[in-house]
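Good morning C.,

I know you're traveling, so I'll keep this short. The sequence:
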Amino acid sequence: MRAVGYREAGSIDREDALVDIQLPAPTPAGRDILVEVKAVSVNPVDYKVRRRSPPAEGVAKVLGWDASGVVRAVGADVTLFKPGDEVFYAGSIDRPGSNAEYHLVDERIVGAKPRSLDWAAAAAMPLTAITAWEGLFDRLEVNRPVPGAARAIVIIGGAGSIAIQLARQLTDLTVIATASRPETQAWAREMGANHIVDHSRPIAAQVAALGLGAPAFVFSTTQTDQHASEIAELIAPQGRFGLIDAISDVSAFMRKSVSIHWELMFTRPSFATADIAEQGVLLGEVARLIDQGVLRTTMTERFTPINAETLKRVHAMVESGRTRGKLVLEAWATA
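The tokens, ready to paste straight into the viewer:
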């Protein structure tokens, strides 16, 4: 089968940063399903792994943690899907990725593809939808109020995340998103943010100027360390702070008894947690909400075909930090 991988970790500007390869088609067993991949999207995790994680010697590492496609075969213990089903999912960081013509994935972390979306629009959704859903509802428990705090959430780096839509459509929170460029500010408003603040300037004073009071919640999706002191200043006492990246010092949050919650959507599949199937359930709910018109895809650009050349281009765009929404590749190159 066709796939795209790399044999040496490093920067995207190398000729062999990503290469077209041929691999044996895998066979499903247990709870795995075999998916014929129709579209994939690129996330920051793709380029971070590519830069830092060398493959085993003599082996090409295949990336990709967002996909949509058709189930072609199932393992003996599969109960949720059958051949011919259309699905979308984000997979597991501990297994080969979805930048391959055929891909194995545990059925419990897979959802039925939204019927109203095409392959590319669906492939834009899983990783960020899982991250945002788990971050908001499982980690921050945003439907549980913080005493005395404003029913508001600040989403740091909201322009690339479905978190704005989920918070606006499924909660009573006032959504304050950060974005620094006109195009990302416009996108955040389009996604439903009530207010926009510029994270290239001090955030706390801008949030205070809104006159809402100290927000109960902050969910940071990027450059958290850079904004940590501002977050500590703006969040309400006993507030809840969620993040998806690293932070070097949490002591600034002690005085306010702010609780800190890390979100990594790979935790459930990596550790086969007792509630691993919750990821499939939430993807099913996301699909239902999309088909009802409550949520919309975050895809902003689509590219074709799926091959090393196109993936290198999209990796470079995502790595630049200047994209908005999700970039998706569809349709494999013809032989």
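Safe travels,
E.
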